[in-house]
Amino acid sequence: MENIWFTADHHFGHTNVIRYDGRPYDNIDAMDADLIQRWNSVVAPTDVVYHVGDLFWYRDIAQARAVRSRLNGRIRLVRGNHDSTADRMPDAFEWIRGYYEAKIPDPDAPDGRQLVVLCHYAFRVWNQSHHGSYHLYGHSHGSLRADPHARSFDIGCMLHNYAPVSYEHVKAIMSAKQWRPVDHHR
User: In the Cβ-directed half-sphere of 16, how many Cα atoms lie within 13 Å?
Assistant: First the structure.
């Protein structure tokens, strides 16, 4: 089985995100180099990476392609609000979508597949949330309070040691929550 990873909000080439997030870098060259190293330290070339938006800040496709060429994995991009450059280079990704419902093979999940709803933006409820599906999002850069009762969390790289997170780690985080559905579909 292929390894599956999740991440968001790398903002390669974005000088101001260093200050906004309090990232530990002096400049974008140092940030980009470290983010690439951390990514490749966990992701193998054949692994699948679901990137949940805001991969590049670069407007120049050549700069974005140079970064992409150094990242391991088969990237499936769920578009964020800063992905116009990625939209102009669709051949660099397995696909680009605005929203995606991944069905991850998992023998512990109903029917052997865990539904993971992916969107750049956080939801309070999502498809099958009342049946234990997961929701991973970015965009908020850790500014939303984590809900200990919802099977969702911010997958932004700045919250996870600036590296993609494995499905196994996502599952462990979700399993540790005291899940309670909030909508009427109980």
Answer: 2
Which residue do the tokens 């496709």 mark? 61
pLDDT at 24: 96
Determine the Cα–Cα distance for residues 13 and 28; give it in Å rounded to an integer.
6
The secondary structure of 72-118 as a DSSP string is: -SEEEEE--TT-HHHHT-GGGSSEEES-EEEEEE-TTSGGGEEEEEE
Task: Report d(CA 158, CA 85) in Å as an integer.
Answer: 21
Query: Which of 3.90.550.10, 3.60.21.10, 3.90.700.10, 3.40.50.300 would CATH assign to domain 4-176?
Result: 3.60.21.10
Structure tokens at 139: 């965009």
Does pLDDT of 184 surpass 80? no
- Condensed to tens digits (0 to 9), the pLDDT of residues 127-139 reads 888 888 899 999 8
Token pair of 127 as six digits:
């498809």
Other CB atoms within 10 Å distance of the CB of residue 172: 11
